[in-house]
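Protein modeling request. Please complete all fields; requests missing the sequence field cannot be processed.
Requester role: graduate student
Desired output: 3D structure, token encoding
Chains: 1
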Amino acid sequence: MPAAFLLALGDLADRRIIGILLRSLLVTLLIFAVVGIATGWALAGTDPCGLVGDMECTLDGDTGGIGAVLFTLLAIWFLFPAVALGVICAYIERIAGIIEARHYPAAAGAARPPSAGRMAWLGLRSAGRVIVYNLIALPFYLLLLVTGIGPLILFVIVNGIAFGRDLGEMVAARHGDAAARQAWLGATRLQRMLIGSTVTGLFLVPVANLLAPVFGAAMTVHLFHRRRPA
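Delivered output (230 residues):
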């Protein structure tokens, strides 16, 4: 785990990795921009006050736009990790190829890249899993508010499990058969949860949160090749 951390840290200086980081960030922000535009269009002309009483407060284009901006900012705050991790799935094949060519050339030559459809499915499942896990944990977040730090600890654990699973599946998809991949996933649960928790912690830190998904992917590639399945 410490070795994977240090190696991944060095990989972030690779200009090709930096390029992927910038592109994945742009795609993530574009997704939220589309959500904002769609929300503004949907809100225009609606009457939210009618949902809670007899008052009327029909939204025009300007107020609908303000509501859309607020909704989008809220969505970025809560959904950025899930969306960013889902987006990075589209680039993880390239990230893994760069790192393997640099550190594990034999493995790079033997890799069997999965189809675009499979990677898209993994990305969608990843984003969905993170959202579902957090919705299930939501009551416990609220109950732990009285402890002060409890919700934060639970957030790191819940998302650490989800991110560790997702990143492991994405990286392992390039190598071996299904049985070997499942064996590796089973043997590295703790290490992947630690990687996932590291990624979750980075998501909580401004600026560092932009690096989190790429850094997590790089760490997982190194973990995979340092704990290769038989």
